[in-house]
Amino acid sequence: MRVVVDLNRCQAYAQCCYAAPESFELRGAEILVYDPAPTPEHRGRIERAVQACPVRAISVEFDDTIGTAS
Question: Exposure of 29 by Cβ count < 10 A (0-12 exposed, 13-18 middle, 19+ buried)?
Answer without folding.
Answer: exposed
